[in-house]
Amino acid sequence: MSKNPPAGATEFEPEFISGLKAIFEERIVFNQLLGLKIETLRADRVVGRLAMKHELVGHFAYNRLHGGVISAGLDAMGGLACMAAIGARHLDEPPQARLHRFGKLGTIDLRVDYLRPAIGESFELRAEVLRLGSRVASTRMEFLGHDGKLLSTAAAAYIVS
After folding, report:
1. Residue 7 within any structural domain of the chain
2. 5 in a structural domain
3. Nearest-CA neighbor of 17 among 105, 69, 102, 84?
4. Where is the Thioesterase domain (predicted)?
């Protein structure tokens, strides 16, 4: 029988949320460099924010975020969605034990579709797990402008065992 959590039914403990935020925003140095911040952390969906960092724009762009930054942000958010889903799957464990389950998480495949230029001062990133298997998770992500306009989409697979 699958241990997939029911969509939206899981409330995480404050200890789990603060621990996962610390891992994602502080201990993963690349996320810190990008300036990724978690806004919403649920078992079925995660939402983050990315502020324009002009040193990441590049010389030729006019306040346009580079595609590599977009794909890295989407990949990170897909991984965070996997972490949340894994955390929800193992609610029978204490929060600290669940936070140690993410050591083997890694991207297997990532596809990004760039729909519009990412011009602006802040962006919202959303991710959800479509399927959490025993070894592989499939995710879907979105990258939106400050006005809510969809700028990029992504799909990814992650090793979770």
Report:
1. no
2. no
3. 84
4. 63-149
Q: pLDDT band for position 23 (50/70/90)? A: very high
CATH of residue 153: 3.10.129.10
pTM (two decimals): 0.89
Number of domains in the chain: 1
Determine the structural domain holding residue 136 and report its residue range: 14-159
Bridge partners, 127 (sequence order):
46, 141
Compute the distance between CA of residue 138 and CA of residue 150 in angstroms, rounded to an integer.
Answer: 21
Indicate the pairing of strand 37-41 with strand 136-145. unpaired
pLDDT digit string, tens, across residues 68-79? 999 999 999 999
- Domain-located, residue 49: yes
